């Protein structure tokens, strides 16, 4: 009786996770379309159009970095410099980042669908898990570059470097685009290990089925 209840709870859990990841796929699909449209829009509009739009209205700007929120004063906003190249490249980098997350969600959803069909220790599942691990390892090498370029782009667009360097307590500003996010790298390594365990489990499952 207890085993039946455990199986039922497990199926409910997998179905719930499947619904959550389906919703995430829909949200990420909308984000991909949104940022794709933004790239096209940013490529077509002129710099004068954006500058005139900012000068003709009242805008506020704030940036949030890992819980640290920075609100820009009106003089900084008025010094906004629209650089089409920086904007398009920034949007393109964000689009690539979302695409990798989108691919990870697809792999996880396929993995959950396979479990719902009663296929757990299979070669396909082990490959899916390993691909998720490779995505995490790849992100660990580029996530710092993405975050640093985001800060760099904002500082260039709003000429924040001049404001910061004009302060007596800031000597200079530098950017480090290359680095490894070791937390994400370790997560990728752990996920890859789980994938290899599933691969070995699929081998044992095939041997067991062959003896029946």
TrEMBL record:
Domain of life: Bacteria
Protein name: DUF2975 domain-containing protein
Annotated keywords: Membrane, Transmembrane, Transmembrane helix
Residue intervals passing through the bilayer: 20-45, 86-112, 132-155, 175-195
Coiled coil: none
Listed InterPro entries: DUF2975
Native organism taxonomy: Bacteria, Bacillati, Bacillota, Bacilli, Bacillales
Record's keyword annotation contains Transmembrane: yes
Pfam families assigned to the protein according to its UniProt record, in alphabetical order: DUF2975
């Amino acid at each position: 009786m207890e085993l039946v209840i455990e199986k039922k709870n497990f199926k409910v859990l997998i179905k719930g996770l499947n619904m959550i990841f389906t919703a995430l796929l829909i949200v990420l699909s909308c984000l991909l379309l949104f940022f794709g449209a933004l790239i096209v829009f940013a490529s077509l509009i002129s710099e004068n159009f954006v500058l005139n739009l900012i000068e003709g209205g009242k805008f506020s700007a704030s940036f949030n970095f890992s819980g640290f929120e920075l609100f820009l004063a009106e003089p900084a906003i008025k010094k906004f410099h629209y650089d089409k190249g920086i904007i398009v490249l920034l949007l393109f980098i964000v689009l690539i980042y979302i695409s990798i997350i989108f691919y990870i969600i697809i792999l996880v959803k396929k993995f959950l669908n396979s479990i719902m069909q009663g296929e757990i220790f299979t070669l396909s599942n082990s490959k899916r898990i390993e691909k998720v691990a490779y995505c995490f390892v790849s992100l660990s090498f580029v996530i710092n570059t993405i975050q640093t370029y985001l800060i760099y782009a904002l500082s260039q667009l709003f000429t924040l470097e001049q404001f910061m360097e004009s302060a007596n307590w800031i000597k200079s500003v530098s950017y480090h685009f290359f680095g490894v996010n070791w937390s994400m790298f370790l997560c990728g390594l752990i996920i890859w290990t789980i994938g290899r365990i599933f691969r070995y489990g699929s081998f044992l499952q095939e041997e067991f089925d062959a003896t029946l």
